[in-house]
Amino acid sequence: MAVNYEDQTILFDFVVKQGNGVKGLIDSGMSCVPQPFVQPPSERIATLNGQTCEAAQPIDLSQLDGPHHKEVAKQIVEAAETLGFFQVVNHGVSIELLELLKTSAHEFFAQPPEKKAIYLKEVSPSKLVKYGTSFVPEKEKAIEWKDYVSMLYTNDHEALQHWPQPCREVALAFLKSSMQMVKRVVEVLMEDVGVRLEEERMNSLMGTKMVNMNYYPTCPSPELTIGVGRHSDMGMLTVLLQDGIGGLYVRLDNGDWAEIPPLNGALVINVGDTLQILSNGKYKSAEHRVRTTNIGSRVSVPIFTAPNPSEKIGPLPQVVKRDGVARYKELLFQDYMNNFFSQPHDGKKSLDFARAD
Description:
- By secondary structure, the chain is of the alpha+beta class.
- The protein has one domain: B-lactam Antibiotic, Isopenicillin N Synthase, Chain (Jelly Rolls, Sandwich).
- It is 31% helix and 18% strand.
- The chain has an eight-stranded mixed beta sheet with strand order 1-2-10-7-12-5-4-3. A four-stranded antiparallel beta sheet has the order 6-11-8-9, with no helix packed on it. Strands 13-14 form a two-stranded antiparallel sheet.
- The longest helix is centred in the middle third of the chain and has 24 residues, at 168-191.
- The termini are far apart.
- The mean pLDDT is 93.
- Belongs to the iron/ascorbate-dependent oxidoreductase family.
- This is Fe2OG dioxygenase domain-containing protein.
- Keywords: Dioxygenase, Iron, Metal-binding, Oxidoreductase.
- Residues 201-307 form the Fe2OG dioxygenase domain.
């Protein structure tokens, strides 16, 4: 299909509203980045400088609850306090499943546009599935170079009934085989601040679970675009499978950006805003972004865990007592979520909504 790359309205309709996505642009024969995707210079990701961060060294979760428990727990806590990102191995998810996930993500996005467009927010047959491009493209200064499908979990039956056929079984298996690990990591982090969450409270704080599949098509000019802009995640913990191409960057304390390098068989875990709020700022939700590439199309598969919308979040009383001050106010997670999704990506600005007056 011939696309008028110069007419921004036609281009936006083709990519976003009709559901052709960024992949549709590439498949149409586009050879240079159209203007709506060109980022302001301040948001572009500089040419790779080879800087990688300490998350390059994975944490071995099989050592938890064994003779080396204290040492491993300390590694998890220190990573959550400083970088907000760490990689884990021996996490309980099979290597075979991780490979199947990457394959099924490519299969979903390789489908004809009309097969994916049925899941566009306005027409999706299920409230559990949403397909789209970028974050909030209607409000962004420049559109992010990413297509995605998100799958909200309610129960196994509904997932197998409503999630897209090419990826429903492997996405569900990934979610179910990861949750025990996620809860154990949260327990370790809570133990370090002297808190033991009752099972009901733990389940409420991670009652919203979503699996996304992200697709970053090969980009002819990666230096002009971004896959995902600067942001932190809104939930408790995010678990991420990335493929071997790389491009995930985290912001360091000094303001520099460093890559979280892909490690075969590892999963990436990062702290979300909710956990920063609960811990009164002890644990840091990591500001991160994604670079595009011209060497191949990249896929990643995150699991987002977040509170039930009706759950109240705020600094835990035990932590406030220790700190002597509450740095965040108590608020309904639904309100936090509504604010988060109403704005384009802008670093950790979403946390300002929860700061104590």
